[in-house]
Write a sequence for this structure.
């Protein structure tokens, strides 16, 4: 570049060098933009810029807007690109996925695969979109195709394990997680899910080893600290969980999931005032999603004096998403608190009816540790009919 400062291929080469240095993605974007400036009819730098900004490697905060801008410029440069250029179509698919346009993402990934079915990334990424839609059958099929193309890919094996886990196929999940672990024993996603799997299948000490390994890998990673906090909540070690959630908040005082989860821990510790304080903080900091109102509603319903506030919270969640199965499940619990057994049955049926097709939002294990539902289980015939209807392969409780 010193000898030929106006040579676009040189800037493109520098772009690719920095692209593969994960901490230098902003530099990669700089060189790509320079290549575009020097060769405005060359589609490849536009495509790479769209990829950089879609995947959030820039630090300017408006990545998706920039990605769309460069994708449209690429379409102008080559009007056939959106029909025949695998990489360009895949980048459009990635943009649609990141911007929440899942149906368009599926269509674009399918178009990319039709052009070249030998590429792993489009097959795997289509699986990711299906997971976002909770279409686990579709995700499983795509991940299996991707593994056939690249059997040594730790991420795809782990993702397939997650699909099995979320559909209660724990032995198959363990096989995939172990395969991913053999490929890379430092891959945090797999360590986290192995910990989840072992704790859920009552192998507590084995699970704890994986969570501790996550912390050893990076002692200041907020995600890692959150992970071990969640683990200690699962095994009812609430004081340890509280300690780690507080540590995440010290590292990032705007992290709304930490406040939300800590509120849940305080609810389990019966420290309701602190739980409400944390839940309100999560609502103030977080996005307008039903789960935050479900969480605070569950806290309020633990105290008869707060039942009206619980009703308000659950109503707000329903208003935001009337098809969310978790809301109806919580309303079933709430009805039991109010000694309204028939209403509890109705809400429970509604919850699982809405969950059909993407089971694992409400897995069979959701009843574990919830004594409220013992009242419904006393109606044995009705309970068995319910379980057979929604969990036909699990046998009777």
């Amino acid at each position: 570049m010193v000898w030929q400062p106006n040579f676009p291929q040189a800037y493109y080469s520098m772009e690719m060098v920095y692209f593969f240095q994960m901490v230098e993605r902003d530099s990669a974007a700089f060189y790509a933009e320079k290549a575009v400036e020097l060769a405005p009819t060359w589609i490849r730098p536009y495509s790479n810029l769209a990829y950089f900004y879609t995947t959030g490697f820039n630090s300017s905060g408006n990545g998706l807007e920039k990605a769309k801008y460069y994708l449209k410029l690429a379409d102008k440069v080559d009007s056939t690109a959106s029909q025949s250029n695998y990489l360009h179509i895949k980048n459009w698919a990635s943009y649609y996925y990141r911007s929440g346009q899942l149906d368009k993402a599926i269509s674009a990934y399918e178009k990319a695969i039709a052009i070249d079915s030998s590429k792993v990334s489009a097959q795997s990424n289509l699986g990711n979109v299906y997971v976002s839609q909770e279409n686990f059958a579709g995700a499983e099929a795509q991940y299996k195709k991707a593994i056939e193309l690249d059997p040594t890919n730790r991420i795809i094996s782990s993702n397939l394990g997650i699909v099995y886990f979320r559909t209660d196929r724990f032995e198959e999940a363990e096989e995939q997680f172990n395969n991913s672990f053999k490929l890379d024993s430092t891959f945090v996603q797999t360590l986290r899910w192995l910990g989840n799997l072992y704790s859920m299948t009552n192998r507590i000490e084995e699970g704890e080893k994986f969570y501790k390994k996550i912390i050893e890998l990076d002692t200041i990673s907020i995600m890692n600290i959150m992970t071990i906090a969640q683990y200690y909540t699962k095994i009812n070690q609430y004081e340890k969980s509280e300690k780690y959630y507080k540590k995440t908040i010290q590292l990032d005082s705007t992290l709304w999931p930490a406040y939300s989860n800590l509120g849940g821990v305080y609810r389990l510790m019966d420290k309701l005032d602190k739980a409400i304080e944390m839940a309100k903080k999560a609502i103030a900091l977080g996005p307008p999603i039903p789960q935050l109102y479900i969480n605070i509603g569950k806290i309020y319903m633990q105290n008869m004096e707060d039942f009206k506030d619980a009703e308000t919270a659950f109503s707000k969640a329903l208003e935001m998403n009337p098809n969310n199965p978790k809301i109806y499940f919580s309303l079933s619990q709430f009805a039991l608190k109010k000694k309204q057994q028939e209403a509890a049955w109705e809400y429970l049926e509604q919850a699982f009816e809405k969950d059909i097709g993407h089971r694992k939002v409400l897995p069979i294990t959701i009843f574990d540790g919830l004594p409220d539902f013992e009242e419904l289980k006393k109606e044995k015939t009705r309970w068995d009919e319910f379980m057979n209807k929604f969990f036909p392969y699990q046998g009777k409780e």
